[in-house]
Design brief:
The chain is α+β, with helices and mostly antiparallel strands and 343 residues long. The chain is built from six helices and 13 strands. The chain starts with 11 loop residues before the first strand and ends in a 9-residue tail after the last helix.
Amino acid sequence: MGLEHITDVPGVLVGHYQRRGRGWRTGTTVVRVDGGAMASCDVRGGGPGTRETDLLDPTAMIDRVQAICMSGGSAYGLATAHGVMRWHEEHAAGFPVGPQPNHVVPIVPAAVIFDLGRGGVFGNRPDETFGYRACAAAKSGAIAMGAVGAGTGAVAAGLQGGVGTASVTLPDGIVVGALAVVNAAGRVIAPNTGLPWFHDGIALRRPSTAERHALIEATRTPPTPLNTTIGLVATSAELTKSECRKMAGVAHDGLARAIRPVHSMFDGDTIFCLSTGRHTLAASNAPGLRRPDTRPGALNALLVAAADCFALACTRAVIEARSSDGGVPSYSDLCPSAFPAAR
């Protein structure tokens, strides 16, 4: 597994906007694809906060989106998607509904995490301006991780949560990436070892006994049940809407490997999938379906990569986080010896 970013998928851009201090600790993250992308999603949590997810069902008419919006603010935070729509309307990008270039309806599905009041003021929550600013800030290249954007007020089983990302390039050149916003009631860190449940490819050392005890004490208090992990996987492969739905579903396997437990009645666990269509996937359904030169075989390789990338993104969201403005401690605060000296 690589440790790269979801923006390694050609055409995928990411932007953050957040506010901290004076009663604020929340933000918004937008994944933008100029020109649109095939999309679907899979909602597994019992308490999701989402927008336009029904439109992503394979039986629905619309199959391309302009962006995915993820935000703090619980259901209030869904208003951020309006700002993302406004940015796209200004750029005449969306589903055409009239004769003029700007007669469009931008398609912007969204999902939110619960972080209300974590900055000290319950009413300080993301609004339309957060979505607009995050969308305008979207760029390629390396993106910030940890307590930024939608992960600013995130908490993961008593530790600072946040945004994490990862990608991998397969032998045929197809890229698969993931971005996760981890605000989980479940643990990302195994209490017996002090290491993440999933840390393939990450250079970490086992923390000292004293650090592990500090970690256990810091996370002993039962977390609030109002938690969730949201995110997306993306690929440069050209997929159908149904294949995007399958890829989003398998990415939940990665979520379950990195966070334990997940998918409770109080979680809003939601994963989107985007296909930018820059690479052609094998089209043959010839005998020997598991071969990588057949479509089922090639698709299966993407599904494996999606699960691995999402698991790694969840882990990086927590280990890259730093405590935010007097909030809960971070993993790096409690277990500094887990990281190489060069960090």
